[in-house]
Amino acid sequence: MHIRILKRLVFIVLMMVLPAKILLAQQVLAVDSSTFEHLFGQKEIKLLEDKKGTFTLQQVMSAQYQSKFKDNPGYYPQNYNLKSWYWFKVKVKFDGTIKHKNCLIEFFDQTTDDITAYIPDTTGRYVATKAGAKYHFTNRLYRHKNFEFTILNRAQGEYTYYFRVKSLEQVNVIIVYRTVDYFIHYALTEYMTYGLFYGMILIFCFHNLLMFIAVKRLQYLFYVLYILSVGFYEMSVDGIAFQYLWPTWPTWNEYAYGVALFFLSAFALEFTKELLQVKTRARGLYKLINFVLVVRTIYFIYCLFFNKGLFIYKFVDSITLAIAFFTGIKVWSQGFKPARFFVLGYTFLFLGFMLKLATVLGLNFGIVNRVLGHYSLSLSFVLEMVFLSFSIGDQVRLLRKDKDAAQEETIKQMAINVDLKDTINRELEQQVQIRTFEVIQKSDELVKQSHIIEEQNEELLAKNDQLEKQADEIYRMNLLLEKDNIQLKTNIEKVTDARALSTELSFEEFSAKYPDQETCYKFLSELKWSNGYECSRCANTVYCGGRMPYSRRCTKCTYEESALQKTIFHNNRIPINKAFYLVYLMYTSKGTI
């Protein structure tokens, strides 16, 4: 009776334990002819930490070590301890229909330093194959940015594949099964997408470089350097740079992304300062940006020359981009309209970063497609570049609008100035007319007085002495009148000159004063040697006439100097009277021409 009860208890315990073991067992990927691609999930990968890196394949395959393999705690397996080696194993079951198809296993994260794949061949022995970012690119099985390992045995049955991984920075161990024909299709599509992405970067760079050459505004130059840094960073992290730029420099490949991130952050902040006019619109943020630039530069130099391992802390650059984002919001809130596109561009960058992070951590919960999540950061960079270009264009539009308003205001002010000039000219003409009328009246009075004196002279011959005195007095008065007439003519010429200097005369009116070349030469000669002649070579003060009109030749060294030499009209190729008129126009316009 007791034995039966004991058997029943054992049976119940076994029935309870077996399902638990089945649930905890590693899931096996079943592959048939319809399976072209499969991403190994969380329950399909087991991992084992090798802290000293001394485990061999035989040890790992033993029953003792098989029990030490653990489930993957995250969505993607990672090398949680950077000092340790990690073993990963996956199981694949072929149904026999895949026997004549070539297939492979691919690792996605291009920054993984060392991967050793142990793949069973047709004899059951494991063949070791190495790949990783620390080896020359030319050593890879396929000239592709990811790491691929060929599956050697595709006969019907279940196979276990082991992978030994070591990396200097934390990486996602993303393992994918693909057929070779699907891999070729996928690779061509992916490289075409990269070509479009980097082509857009080059187009944006070329356009804004031309704008910088045309208008000489630093914002265009910093924008070009920023998007070049974005392209450099993307090429570094997706493996394109290692494939095409430095395939034989794996050491540089390990920290090239950190150099790119530094330039990306630095030029992003410089572009923010120039585009948003932070120095005048947000003085406190301007000082903060300069401080962050100095600190980030010091940190970069320390990483580059003393501890390259610190480059793995990419979150440092999220601080600089967050400051640029906040600066855009602050300037936009103050009414600077171009900042709205700037903020929109950084909003897309932030969303792309969050989608990328969610995809890496496996937190998208099926909401976002895996491919979209993988390329979300690149897509957000494209959208950011587009909206930053809109922001630059909007600023140019506003500047042009302000310029047009300033030109209209200038035109209005010029019209007011012309009205003032016309008013002054009319007043001067009225004063000249009044003065001329007064002179004519005085002249008439003098004529009348002269007749009276002549009549009195004929009548008063007796008073000869008195008449002689009167004649002397009249003579003196005539001299004074002549002086007054000369002074009056001089004043009229001065008024005419003053009028010429206060209004814009036509070329025909101006030519009345300087009608020909000799008149202009005469004026320049009198002005040039107003303090006396002195030879510019030997300092002789005696001269004679030269070959050109109003030129002077030294009597000692025979050096001839024209009236135009050492003036702004020297070597002038247009007629001198027209050149005079140009100077006259620039003078009368007071800098508006």
Fold and architecture overview:
The chain has 593 residues and is α+β, with helices and mostly antiparallel strands. It folds into three domains: 24-178, Immunoglobulin-like (Sandwich), CATH 2.60.40.2380; 186-407, Rhopdopsin 7-helix transmembrane proteins; 505-593, no CATH class. It has 17 helices and 14 strands. α4 runs antiparallel to α5 (218-238), α7 (250-275) runs antiparallel to α9 and α13 (376-459) runs antiparallel to α14. The radius of gyration is 47 Å and the shape is rod-shaped. It starts with a helix and ends with a helix. 26% of the residues are buried.
Please outline the helices and strands.
Blueprint lengths: L1 H23 L4 E3 L5 E3 L6 E5 L6 H5 L1 H4 L3 E2 L13 E10 L8 E5 L6 E7 L5 E6 L15 E4 L6 E10 L8 E5 H36 L2 H21 L1 H5 L5 H26 L2 H4 L1 H23 L9 H19 L5 H23 L8 H5 L1 H84 L4 H39 L4 H7 L3 H12 L14 E3 L6 E3 L5 E2 L14 H14 L4
Parallel strand pairs: 1-5
Antiparallel strand pairs: 2-11, 3-4, 3-5, 5-10, 6-9, 6-11, 7-8, 7-10, 12-13, 13-14
Helix pairs in contact: 4-5, 4-13, 5-7, 5-13, 7-9, 7-10, 9-10, 10-11, 11-13, 13-14
